[in-house]
Specification:
By secondary structure, this protein is α+β, with helices and mostly antiparallel strands. It is built from two helices and eight strands, in the order αββββββαββ. Strand 7 and strand 8 form a beta hairpin.
Length: 138
């Protein structure tokens, strides 16, 4: 009976330890990269984009404190904020109420190893005006 109780406690302890490891990794955001979004075109808009690795994909969470319109297009472009390729490499969900979350089909390593930037546009109607931008760096 004592041996059975000991075995049961050992199994429960090991199972609890295994579950805790998975939970800690998800909460820690280990390996995440934060991109500072700087104001463009006197928009007054600043914020951050946090890129978190999810295997071969990357979760991109955009937060801005001063949305300039109810819905702002956002993209990842090749190049830098000073020299963007106008064709987006990865579309992000529009920033609404200052927030957007998108999973893109690119690893974080591929985004940090190249020259890429995240930019936001004024609105769907005025996509030609950039309101903030940040370079993705490793």
């Amino acid at each position: 009976m004592t041996r059975l109780l000991f075995t049961a406690l050992l199994v429960l302890t090991l199972a609890a330890g295994c579950g805790g490891d998975d939970e800690d990794e998800g909460e820690a955001g280990e390996g995440a990269v934060t991109v500072e979004l700087a104001e463009l075109n006197s928009s007054g808009q600043t914020g951050t984009a946090t890129l978190t690795p999810e295997g071969a994909q990357t979760l991109v969470v955009v937060e801005v404190s001063d949305p300039v319109s109810p819905s702002q297009p956002a993209h990842i472009h090749a190049g830098t904020c000073d020299n963007l390729d106008p064709t987006p490499t990865h579309g992000l969900l529009n920033v609404t109420d200052g927030h957007s979350e998108t999973t893109v089909d690119a690893s974080l390593d591929s985004l940090t190893d190249g020259e890429f930037a995240i930019n936001l546009h004024m609105s769907d109607e005025d996509a030609g005006t950039y309101t903030s931008c940040g370079n993705i760096e490793g």
